Structure formats: C-alpha cells, structure tokens
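Chapter summary example: a protein plus S-adenosylmethionine.
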Amino acid sequence: METDWSRLSEVIADAMGLHFPRERWPDLQRGLAGATTEFGFTDIAACAESLLSAPLTKIQMQVLADHLTIGETYFFREKRTFEAIASQLLPALIESRRNGERRLRLWSAACCTGEEAYSLAIMLHQLLPDLAAWHVTILATDINARFLRKAVAASYGEWSFRDAPAGFKERYFIRGEDNRYLVVPEIRQMVTFAPLNLAEGGYPSLATDTNAMDLIFCRNVLMYFAPAQAVRVIANLRHALIDGGWLAVGPSEVSQALFPGFVVRNFPGVILYQKGGAPLSSRPQPRPKLRGETERLDFAPALPWPRPAAPVPAATRAPAPRSEREEKRPRPYELARALYEQGRQAEAVETLLVPAARAMRDPREFHLLARALANEGKLTDALAWCDSGLVADKLDAVGHYLRATILLEQGQVAPARISLQRAVYLDPAFVLAHFALGNLARANGKPGEADRHFSNAQQLLVRLKADEPIPEGDGLTAGRLAEIIATLATLKTSR
Ligand SMILES: C[S@@+](CC[C@H](N)C(=O)[O-])C[C@H]1O[C@@H](n2cnc3c(N)ncnc32)[C@H](O)[C@@H]1O
C-alpha cells in the first residue's frame, strides 16, 4: 500500500511542530527509515501505517524526535547575538536590577545538547562579578530526551568549540578522556534542563518555571515548524516574557510577519525582538469579551500602584453588597482570569485592583493577583498579595504553593520548601506541590528524595485522565506532567 506522506507530515506537524512540506519528504523518509527498527518494523511503509493508525503516543514522539530533529549546535553560535546581549542588553538590565530584586531569568527553548544554555551561563558569569548575590535562572528545554541527557552530561568534543572565543575552553572546561571537555561545576549548576515540546503549549506556567522570563533564546527551531505552529509558539513565548523582555531567534527566522506584539530592535549584525513595555494606561488592546457578556464594562482609570502595605485580615472586611445587575456582569475575577489566560498580566492585575474599594473575598482573586504579578516579574508585590491571602485563610494550600513558587523565583529555597510542605500537608493530593518538592530535591543533588516526591506525584497522576488539566498548572495536563517526570528521571542530575 502507498504511504500517505502528506497525512504523516500533518500528524507530525500537529504533535511536534515539525513541518515536512513535499520538498522535505526525503528528509522525513530518511528519518522514518532510521526509526523503523526502533519501532519494531522491518518495513518503512508498515511503520508509517502504524503511526497513522492512532494518535501519536509520547513514546512514539520521543523516537520520532530522535530521528527527525536536527542536533546541530555549538558554543556561542551566531556570536553577534551574544555580543549584542552581553554588551548592551544585559548591562542595562543588570543596572536596573542592581538596587532592587537581583534576579535574572533566561530560557534556552530548544537547547539541543546544551551548548547554547552553557554559553548563556558563561556570559552571565563574566558579566556578574557578584554572581552569588544574584538569583539567576537559566532554564534549558528540548523535545529530544537524548539531547537533554547529553546536555546534562556536559561533555563536549572539539567540534562544539568551533566558534568559541579564545581562552574560553581553558577557563570553563576540564579536559577529560578522549579529547572531551567537561563544563566546570560552577557553570553546570547554573543551568536546569527539562523536557518541553514547544508545539504542545502548556507554557508559560509557574509549574514548569517557564514564566516571567527576561530573555528567551528560541533559535534555529522555528524554521522547521509549520507557519501556523510557529505563530502559536511565538505567542506563547511572548506570554512567557515580562514586559520589556527579549526574544532571540536564528538569523534565518527573523520575519516581519511572525512577531506581532514585539518591537524590532537592531543591533550590529543582528535583530532581537522586545516585548513592548507600554505603560498600562496606554495599552491599545481591546478587553476580551467573556461568554455571555452583552454590555460594555466600564472601568475606573488606573490608580497609582496599590501595593498592600500590610495584610488585611478577611474578618475585618465586610462583604460588599451585590446588586442584581452586578450579579449578571462578569465579576472582576472572571474578567481578570480571561486576561491572564491571554497573557495580559498587567491588565489582569488592574482589573482586580482598580475597583480598590472592593474588598477581595475570593481566595482565587489573591491567587490570580499573585500569579499575574509573578508573571510580570513583580515578585515582591506577588508575595505580598499571597501573604495577604494567607492571612485571610492560612489553610489555603494553593496560597502556600504559590508562595513557594514565588519564593523559588526569588531564590529563597528554605522558606519555599516550608511552604510546599505546608501545601502537601493541607492537601496531600496537590500534585504540583509534590512535583515542586521533587524539583527542589533534584536541584539540591538529592536524587533519592526527588524520586520519592516524583513518585507521589506519579501516583496521583495515574488517577487523572491524560488530557485533564492539573489544578494550578496553567493548562499543563496530567499526561504531559507524567511525561516530564518520566524524562526527568532519565536525566542524571548534574549537581
Ligand atoms: C538545530 S537545534 C538548535 C539548537 C540551538 N537552539 C541552536 O540554535 O544552536 C534544533 C533543536 O530544536 C529541537 N526541537 C525540535 N522540535 C522541537 C519542539 N517541538 N519542541 C522543543 N524542541 C524542539 C530539536 O530537538 C533540536 O535540539
């Protein structure tokens, strides 16, 4: 029977983003030929037929990723991007944060075997003589678990250094056997590797630490995506950036059409995209219409930033009377939630806070405020609102969990662990709190403890349907989290 290559390429594009138009069918056929024996077939047509017979499983996607993705990368690839970032963008960012929250969040999305992420770590190491006084996050993700395992192993051959600056190898690598070079521990420990399929969505999310990024590298991967998928990925990455955050793509991925909502910034020999940082009141976007909304909602003009000076106990606040008309209108929480889901964090915050006289009673409002502020990188404010919510209800497991994720973004590991322990004590079925405890143990080089927490999470996940969204997971499904945990178990920690 004739193989339906057109359908197979559609299935692969849907599941993994990878686009194989007719002219790239030879690449698809070559990749599939490589995967055929791994799938237990001797014949490529039978293998294709079986892949088309049901939705692709996670394991099938892993095998396909291994044979269809391109693992070409090296240290300081496209040097001019690093030069622009190191000479202009990061010094300004560092200066603006030096007297406030000393936090930097970078993400190498599609990190391949890790060279890009370690290049970022080395760059920061050079730019920040007082690195220890900063909380630096470098997240590195990829669809291909085999590449991730190599990245965690951090051992490289000469070819990875083909464009590296002079002296770089000697300073940041230890020479091992067989002409391999091992990244020094101080750089290795700056990077966290995790699996993430850009085509699947589920980011940004506090749960996977993919939110509030200052700088995202997503290079030399969008060019393999179908245009519609690339547009979705770019929109998600935009949401994962704070206002004023930056996106770097490969030189051949720069495009007029694909980057709405970004400002094009020219640097010598390179274009970077910046998420516009217009002030709240001048945002031109229309408010989202909610299901059932018929009338236009009127909002008071933006007030000065109302940071809570001290937590306000719920008991002292009288419930606001609600008129019948108000009952029919979408409540601030629902409107704010819709804005939040569109990545419009500042407007979500504004929606909850502008009617300042309104007493907040619903714990979900505290949660949403904390989340939206954290996604904007306003961690101190996010924490203050979390604490206000916890004063109102100290048994609120979600509040403790959110508090922990914010503390982790601030680098406050010990209090974060306590908050997570409180969350699982109050709600033993809180999957993401178990997952976060596992990540924490893993980051601290305690694999046994990490396995215990991950196994608790897995036991809870098997009770859920694979496509069921996990509470507090920003769209992360049970199946996807189970897959992430399974892959993490195969990545030996580098700490
Ligand atoms: C050519 S490498 C780019 C590596 C690095 N960013 C660079 O520019 O040197 C492309 C990477 O994209 C990854 N990739 C492909 N499809 C992906 C997807 N759907 N989600 C995440 N990563 C993906 C591949 O596994 C591969 O590691």
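Key point: The chain has 20 helices and ten strands.
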